[in-house]
Design brief:
Number of strands: 25
Number of helices: 3
Domain Glucose/Sorbosone dehydrogenase: 62-392
Signal peptide: 1-37
Largest sheet: 5 strands, mixed
Protein name: Dehydrogenase
Organism: Bordetella genomosp. 10
CATH architecture of the domain at 62-312: 6 Propeller
Keywords: Signal
């Protein structure tokens, strides 16, 4: 009878050993993940590149331009924060579009992003984000039909605004509106960044839409698979929270969604954007308050999602695209980000495993507000100025 008992004992011991090995392996994976999350790259001290590998061609000038979007025929839509929308040719000829909603223009507020609908070919619909005129000064998202022949917007309708049902806590006042619009690669979902409007605690209030990334259907309805879809109100549209001033949101070729946001005094962030995650503002930051008081660093609160990289000193990131064109084939898959404070164009490369690093920083001599890729693969930039130029970048000829 002793032999079966010993066999069972050996089997039990082996199972226990396997469980121990599995536990060690799992602990190692978690340790590696925690180590990676606890040590994002600080790219703030990176110097400018000594040479610029592109030629810069000024094409047109605008009054505080904010965003640009290409039409299929190669023309562009350009917004001015002052409240104007233009159709612009590649040669710089401008035509102003009528029917743009009234905006509150001051500081960071005004007419913001413009994006073509995924169904543009069928319905000629565009989307605009802006800070509404009037005492509320709410961030709003509207869609309208662009009548190119009549140079006007038709049937404009607000599909979302920051203050639903008169809830004044979630409305306007202050800068940092966010306002970046992007669609999922399949065109089914619209994402909108909503800043904290300089009221930091709103970013952690689940019942307010400020300091959040929102996800909705193109008509503004709530997707049933949103993290808190069943809870209603602002929670239903919330995709992630804990953001300060997000001015860049774009999908990488591998399907990952990336977001950058401005920090306070230090701590601009590039985040891998994931459903239901809390990115920590204003509880944690790699920057400090403007009055010099410190903010706890992200590793002190492991419940929050860490940035993949950050910038201290800040670059003040604005606009972001992932490049896929033919004119600069060596940069396919890279992200290009404008730098307001840095007055730079920044290139970020990705390792395909959720990691990223800044590879280039080119001194543009002006605050760069927006970046776009043209149909031929040229890079297009907008300067942030009352005489902001539209620039076309092409490879420098030796």
């Amino acid at each position: 009878m002793s032999i079966p008992i010993r066999r069972r004992s050996r089997a039990a011991s082996w199972r226990k050993h396997l469980r121990a090995l599995a536990l060690v392996a799992a602990t190692a994976v978690l340790s590696i993940q925690a180590s990676h999350a606890a040590a994002p790259r600080n790219e703030g001290e990176r110097p400018y590149d000594r040479e610029t590998p592109f030629a810069v061609q000024p094409v047109a000038t605008f009054d505080m331009p904010w965003a640009l979007a290409f039409l299929p025929d190669g023309r562009m839509l350009v917004t001015e924060k002052t409240g104007h929308l233009y159709v612009v040719t590649a040669q710089g000829a401008k035509q102003r579009i009528a029917g743009v909603p009234a905006v509150t223009y001051s500081g960071q507020n005004g007419l913001l992003d413009v994006v073509l609908s995924p169904t543009w070919q069928d319905d000629k619909t565009i989307y605009l984000s802006y800070v509404e005129a009037g005492p509320g000064a709410n961030l709003a998202l509207a869609r309208a039909r662009l009548d190119l022949d009549g140079a006007a917007l038709r049937d404009l309708r607000v599909i979302w605004r920051a203050t639903p049902d008169g809830d004044k806590r979630g409305g306007g006042a202050g800068g940092q509106p966010g306002g970046i619009i992007t669609f999922s690669p399949d065109g089914r979902y619209l994402f909108l960044t909503s800043g904290d409007r300089m009221r930091p605690r709103t970013a952690q209030d689940p019942d307010l839409p400020l300091g959040k990334v929102l996800r909705m259907f193109p008509d503004g309805r709530v997707p049933p698979d949103n993290p808190w879809a069943k809870e209603g109100g602002a929670r239903a549209l919330t995709w992630s929270l804990g953001h300060r001033n997000p001015y860049g949101l774009a999908y990488a070729p591998d399907g990952r969604l990336w977001l950058h946001e401005m920090g306070p005094m230090g701590g601009d962030e590039l985040n891998l954007e994931e459903a239901g995650k809390n990115y920590g503002w204003p509880v944690v930051s790699y920057g400090d308050n403007y009055n010099g008081t410190p903010i706890p660093r992200p590793p002190t609160h492991p419940e929050f999602q860490e940035p993949v990289l950050y910038w201290t000193p800040v670059i003040a990131p604005a606009g972001m695209i992932f490049y896929k064109g033919a004119m600069f084939p060596q940069w396919r898959g890279s992200a290009f980000i404008g730098g307001l404070r840095a007055q730079a164009l920044v290139r970020v490369a990705f390792d395909g495993h959720g990691g990223a690093r800044e590879e280039n920083r080119w001194n543009m001599g002006a605050r760069i507000r927006a970046v776009a890729e043209g149909p031929d693969g040229a890079l297009w930039l907008l300067e942030d100025s009352s005489e902001g130029r539209l620039l076309r970048l092409t490879p420098r000829r030796e």
